[in-house]
Design brief:
13 helices; RNA-binding; single chain; alpha+beta; 2 domains; 18 strands; 3-stranded antiparallel sheet
Length: about 425
Amino acid sequence: MIDIRMLREQPEVVKDNIRKKFQDHKLPLVDEVIQLDLTSRSIKQEADDLRANRNRISKEIGALMAQNKKEEAENKKAEVANKATLLLELEEKERELEEKITKIMMVIPNIIDSSVPIGKDDTENVEITKYGEPVVPDFEVPYHAEIMEDFNGLDLDSARKVAGNGFYYLMGDIARLHSAVISYARDFMIERGFTYCVPPFMIRSNVVAGVMSFAEMDAMMYKIEGEDLYLIGTSEHSMIGKYIDTIIPESELPQTLTSYSPCFRKEKGAHGLEERGVYRIHQFEKQEMIVVCKPEESHLWFDKLWKNTVELFRSLDIPVRTLECCSGDLADLKVKSFDVEAWSPRQKKYFEVGSCSNLGDAQARRLKIRINGESGKYFAHTLNNTVAAPPRMLIAFLENNRQADGTVRIPTALQPYMGGKTALS
RNA sequence: GGAGGAUUAGCGAAGCGGUCAUAACGCGGCGGUCUUGAAAACCGUUUGCCUUCACGGGCACGGGGGUUCGAAUCCCUCAUCCUCCGCCA
């Protein structure tokens, strides 16, 4: 959500930004919201005057009652009652207008960073850098589910009976590998100075509304029946929610946290769940990182964040590349975003394993996350990034570390988390 | 899950239908006097949001709703905390 004052003062900047994101259908909303805002403020002024009047007369009534002048007090009461209906009507209008304005402001996209490449959709995302050689081995790499099954590490049939399509049982060494990756990712971030955190896995609707749009919520979030609770789709939700309605002293910034959580997603509207794999599923686990910082530092933090993911994958001998989201593919709340993609030697292409985003002050404005600084109070900037999210992450791990003989080598960094094993065989 | 009590500024706490909410009082913070410097003492200052060029005005006493001319105060509801009971890793 952008600042309505900014929209008021520089509507052309907001419109240009909408054009850059190829959302021209939203252009009329800018002028509409300017008009609504103008009306809203004048009605608010009128209502405030009536309230001021009522407050003044009420005080007079109090004074009269104290002096036992009942008749005069009754006259004053009538005076207030006269304007009561008008005030009620104005208050109703105030509410309506505010609602309309908020609704529009929620869909006006955040101003994208000047460095974001312009493009219509994900086909125009831009590769930034490759890290590691995307090797195509001279032997065939099987489908990831097959690799897992070779180690008796995956049981999708039972999962379908128990929970349905989109769930999995991980077994034995594959399950252990899953936990090892999470633990390794956790320690990797702790060593980089992040504070480890295990957050709530369910959040209330007001937090949900603060961190995502209604459309996203409908497509992603599982609701708990009979409770005002939703299963989190990522720990970013509960981690950013941690700061809801807070004023953070400047001296306590930046807040750098790494969180673990299971993630639950409906994947409604997605291209269908992969029938035989763990690529797109309803439940996975994720080590995440989030940063709350001063506005002038969010660019720096953005670069630090995605590099963490690249380095983690490189330490496990997985080739990756960074891909920048073009303007049209960038979610409305985001200022800038990089995907980290891992190399798939089977598909001979890269696929998404993480996403790093700078939200600017958009999330902070929605959730009222402010900084108390020397020169006053202002909205914080928030960022988030994936460290590692298995089991999808295991696809990249298994495909890249599988040898010609079918064994899977365990890179040195991960060996302590696998009880010293150097390979799965 | 059941019973009772509570939620007021950075913290503690008074107020329990109307010049005590522009929130007493205390602590803390900030500025000053005094001092070579510090402490003590004394004086002053110290919530946020919206609106306005400004003066000013409005809103907020855990959240939401209601009663009233007027609500921190009365009613409903939700949340959180404390005490006791029950249950449970």
